[in-house]
Amino acid sequence: MPQLYKSSLFYTILVGLIAWACVNPITDFVQVDSTSFTTIEADISDDAALSKVRLTSSSNRLTSQFSLPISKATVSVTDQNGVKTTFTEGIPTGTYYPSAGFKGAVGSSYKLAVKLLTGQTYESAVETMKAVPEIENLITRFETLEQYPKVDVRRAGFSVYLDFKDFQSEGDFYLWNWKHFEKIRLCATCTDGGRYDFKKLDCVQPRFPTDAILNYMCDGNCWDISTNNDLNVFSDVLTNGQRVVGRQVARIPFDNWTPYYFRLEQRSITRSAFDFYQSLISQIQSSGSLFDVPAETRFSLNIKSLTNPAEKVIGIFNVFSVRKKIFIVDRSKNIPIGELPIIPIIPGETYACPPGSVGCQDKVPCIESNTRTKITPEGWVF
Amino acid sequence: MIKLLPRVFCLGLLFVLSYQSIAQTTSLPAIFGKVIDASTGEPLKGADISVDFKKSGVTTDTSGNYKVHVPYGEWVIKVSYVGYNPYRTKIYIKANTELNVQLNNVTKQLEEVIVSSAATKRDIQTPSLGVTVLSLKGIKKLPTMMGEVDVIRSLQSLPGVSSVGEGANGLNIRGSNVDQNLIYIDDTPIFNPTHMFGLFSVFASDAIRDLELYKGGVPSRFGGRAASVLDIKMIEPNTDKFKMQGGIGLISNRVMAEIPIIKEKLSVLVAGRLSVNDFMFKWFAPDYLKNLRANFSDVATKIYYRPNTKNTISLSSYLSHDYYRVDSLFSIENVVAKQTSFNYGHTNFAAHWNHYFSPKLNMMVSGSLTDYSTKTFAPDSVNTIDLKSSILYRNLTTSFDYQPKENHKMNFGITATRYDINPGTLNEGVISRVSTVKIPDEQSYELALFADDEWTLSPKFTLQAGLRYSHYYRMGAGSENVYAPGQMPSLNTVLRKNTYADGEVMASYGGFEPRVTMKYSLAENTTMKFGYNRQQQFFQLLSNNTTPLPTSRWKTADNFIKPQQSDFFSLGLFKTFNENVFEASLETYYRDVANTLDFVSGANLQLNPNIETQLISGKSKAYGMELMVQKKKGEVSGWVSYTYARAFNQMIGEFPEVQAINGGEWFATNYDKPHTLNMMLNIQPTTHHSFSFTFAYNTGRPFSSPSGSYEIGGKKFPVFAERNNDRVRDYHRLDFSWTINNPSMKKQRWEGSWVFTIYNLYGRQNPYSVFFKSTKAGLRAYELSVFASPFISLTYNFKFL
Do you know which Pfam families this protein is assigned to (chain A) (predicted)? Predict the structure, then answer.
């Protein structure tokens, strides 16, 4: 049972006992090898909005921000009845979407086929969509993590625990994601004396930077989106058919008294996807202990190249069903005496047009991105 | 200051006077006397007399006489002579004073053996090669970590012995995996040689007499492991006199007593060690670690009975125990638990009967038992966990030593071992939401016949030839999957299960293991040796962690896991200089191992009943050269060693698309560290105190470096395409210790000593590993250092004689 314990357990003991052990970032890390691989991330879900296929060429740099999208490929998914759904490229490039109305169904099996412009073809194993139980209950508890100093926002917060009932069938695998929407008043901050350019929709730096910071109000509703940074998966191998109680899924910072919008997503994933995520967890989440397992990318786990069977393909054909639940966490109750929120202070002044000025703009638009939206989140009640 | 000035002045004056050879005319008092060789009584001509650490210019004449004038007062006199241990004394001069000195010849001094390659130590008797003997007295001189005398750590200052890194569990000896080394304490095996996950070794130092490390020429009486043997012997308690010793340290307290019950017939040894860490967590740990508990203990006992001169009987036991408790947050994978505790330990017993038939023939009969058990539990939650695993080892051995002639010795015997393994039982008989899982028990036998013959064919040539035949049986009751032919073993390819009844043979393997070493004297003090060994291993550790966890699973061979087989060649050159004061050795070796194990990418070893689906079987090879120069006697002793060593694996199974690491190419093992330099220096100016320094350098160990990065679910991950393709930074460290024996300097039954140690003197942050984390700014590389700053400790030891 070597992998039985999370290695972090041992690491904690070691760090606890030997306070002089340490972890240092390597600032001048140099790669000894640089290689790109075809990367296929294919999601088929019973939530129509979540089915998509993304094709990229992995970056050969560890620190590079972007992977190169693979455009103009032929992508399709065939179900157990031979019904073929073609995915067409949309925005951003390299991302392929099914025709409107396509939705995966629990119990159905799917197979992915991809053909690149260069002629390489890839095919996945057949994966069957499993049902997912409802999220029954969510418990939040105020807890402090004493490893952080009092001024650190990570110290005090609400741990979020989940209850659900596992299905009687064996071999259920779960993955949780969460999203938090924070309504914002300020949509842009220009530092170093910069001003907002309403044509470029970005800050413009002056020739001679100053210390001035200007904040700009949003021109309408706008929300910042934050998501889980860590992967969280679970297998029912040891608790099949049981009610799983107290699984920690998130931690909410105590950075204000205000209610906290929290959207939890519970996915039922396949064994291949579980194995894939598990390997990612061991590579970058539970690494850094004395007992690390070998860092190895699981190439070609359920997607293989037909043209060159020896080709190492990165990625996963992820077939899952999903349930979502929205919770509003009351951050003003059950706080121990003496605990105060660490409310972030936004430095600088808020820009406002001088009274009577003509054609002056002082409110900036809310630009859609992965971390920001102007669309009112589902279940928003404030 | 006032006192000091005249003395400095006087000293200056003294030298002026003596250099001008007019000392005789002075009216200052004189120290005079004769310097002789302590053993022969011969006068020593030309011995230097120093006063207050400065040369006086005075030397002894042909009769060994000297005379030196000093002002009134207190002086330190040192008498030194090349090849002899110097003599120092503090003397108060009120009038002319006679000081006669006997100096000890270094070459005739008894060796303060710290380490000895038995090759030269027992030069005439044995041709053994790659064998190192360490006395505990010697090990105690080496600087320690946190004041704990540590066998495993001390061994790592020897050439050819290393580990994955500081805090790692187990040893890698000449490119061996940790499970390829057989560790015996009084003939009972140790499966996990460390406490606290690798921080301290399990052997209570007070109970140990000496250690023999067989890196190469393993005699045929040892078997069952593919690489080396560490044979630790416990003290035989003194039958005449009560003795007690112990120590108080930062990590643990120790006590050992030798108690004669019937004079010259029956005596008992009891030694114990108990860790005292809990207070550190309670007092010093941050709040989140205050509930952490980490304790360990060892107890060794030995009863020694000698009814008459023909028979001796000894019963020994060795118990070790570890207990930990950690707070929530961390739990067993796929189980929700608030707090996890676990304990593990050895329970070892051995009985030995030695019978002397004649001066030429004696017999030893021994029975031994080792029970290594681990338990992981979380009792106070709805998700109760109670996970147990154990290994029960039982052995019977009978062997004979026969010496028909002075130049001819034999050792032969028969040995039988039974293994009973419980690989893992979760929640048996426990009410919990977490299910019950039972991995079937494994039973097996390992039987062997062995014989070693050592024959001095000529004064120059000695041959030691041995042969071992081992046979292994994997026994029922049990079951085994049958997989579809031509398909990779996996849950989808199981055709059926073969079941075996109790006592039925499920699998068996056997083979001869020749062991040969030979010695040829090239010159009086120079010998050359050659050795060849074959060894088989039927019992292995299944772990894919950088260093194995204490709870890692051991598994005996079956139809899927073939026994490991190693072929080992070595060639050595040994030379002593200056009547054994200096010893130099050069040893080279090459090892080839078949059927070593590794695991498929992302292997799941957790309570897995079909472990064969996760394995890859492959080959290992290791080669190297070890160069060592030692100064074994004198005021300053020590050694310097340089090792060039490589260790590689090639892992490719029948289904390479899954069963291959690094595309089936050879890759460096986690412990492949090509260059190693070790230095040890011990300075013992008087019997009351000594200083030691150790320095260690080695090339950084390999790690897997990414080839780039990719994005999944909007998050970035590194691409690891090759195993162990880069290295962490080089390792180096200097340690220091200062031992003060009997500070009162009075002869008394209670004798105390203090050991002051600084580990990692210059505080280098030696990397253990390099790993990668995802941050908001992208992927970053990090380095983990285990002992990243100097660590100072003070230990008090005592002896009651």
Answer: DUF4249
State the Cα angle at A62 between A57 and A68, rounded to 5°: 20
Q: Do domains B4-108 and B115-800 have the same CATH topology?
A: no
Q: What is the CB-side half-sphere exposure of residue B35 using CA atoms within 13 A?
A: 31
Give the number of other CB atoms < 10 A from CB of residue B543: 26
Is A261 strand, coil or helix?
strand
Chain B: closest CA distance from residue A274 (Å): 11
Of B168, B318, B148, nearest in space to B234 by CA: B318
Q: How far is A351 from chain B (nearest CA, A)?
A: 29
Q: What's the residue count for chain B?
A: 801
Residue A237 CB neighbours (<10 A): 20
Q: Is A117 part of the contact surface with chain B (CB cutoff 8 Å)?
A: no
Q: What is the pLDDT of residue B284?
A: 61
Would you say the C-alpha torsion A184, A186, A192, A195 has a positive or negative sign? positive
What is the tens place of the pLDDT at every residue in B614-663? 999 999 999 999 999 999 888 898 999 999 999 999 999 999 888 999 99
Averaged pLDDT score across all residues of chain A: 89
- Beta-strand ranges (E) seen in B359-460 are 361-378, 385-405, 408-426, 437-438, 442-458
Partners of residue A370 in chain B, C-beta under 8 Å? 714
B644 touches B674 (CB < 8 A): yes
Contacts of B275 in chain A (CB under 8 A): none
Tokens 């350098």, residue located: B697
Tens digit of each residue's pLDDT (9 = 90 or more) over B478-505: 999 999 998 999 888 999 999 999 999 9
Question: What pLDDT is stored for residue B122 in this prediction?
Answer: 44
How far is residue B78's CA from residue B95's CA, in Å, rounded to a whole number? 19
In whole angstroms, what is the distance from residue A278 CA to residue A196 CA?
A: 44
CB atoms closer than 10 angstroms to residue B772: 23
Does an H or E element contain A214, and which? strand A214-218
Alpha helices in B192-295 (DSSP H): 278-284
In the structure encoding, which two tokens stand for residue B171, read together? 């040893």
Q: Token pair for residue A149?
A: 């100093």
- For residues B692 and A21, is the Cβ–Cβ distance under 8 A? no
H helices within B585-742, ranges in order?
none
What is the overall mean pLDDT for chain B?
Answer: 87
> What's the rounded Cα separation, in Å, for the pair A89 and A54?
9
Which value, to the nearest 10 degrees, does the dihedral of the CA atoms of residues A240, A243, A249, A255 take?
Answer: -170
The interface predicted TM-score (ipTM) is 0.90
User: What residue ranges of chain B have pLDDT lower than 70?
Assistant: 1-26, 107-127, 277, 279-291, 327-332, 338, 380-381
Q: Do B787 and A9 touch (CB under 8 A)?
A: no
Identify the band that residue A177 occupies on the pLDDT scale cut at 50, 70 and 90. Answer: very high
Pick the CATH number of B115-800 from 2.60.40.350, 3.30.1490.20, 3.60.10.10, 2.40.170.20: 2.40.170.20
Q: Which residue has the tokens 């003194």?
A: B238
Q: Bridge partners of A121?
A: A115
Q: Which residue has the tokens 């010159």?
A: B523
pLDDT digits (tens, 9 = 90+) for B431-484: 888 889 999 999 999 999 999 998 989 989 999 999 999 999 999 899 999 999
Q: How far is A356 from chain B (nearest CA, A)?
A: 43
pLDDT of residue B289: 62
Round to whole Å and give the CA distance between A206 and A217.
Answer: 21
**Token match 């140690």: residue?**
B757
- What's domain B4-108's superfamily in CATH? Carboxypeptidase-like, regulatory domain (2.60.40.1120)
8-state DSSP, B660: B
Name the one residue in this structure whose structure tokens are 């210019």: B57
Could you tell me the residue ranges of all domains in chain B? 4-108, 115-800
Those of residues 164-223 in A touching chain B at CB distance below 8 A are none
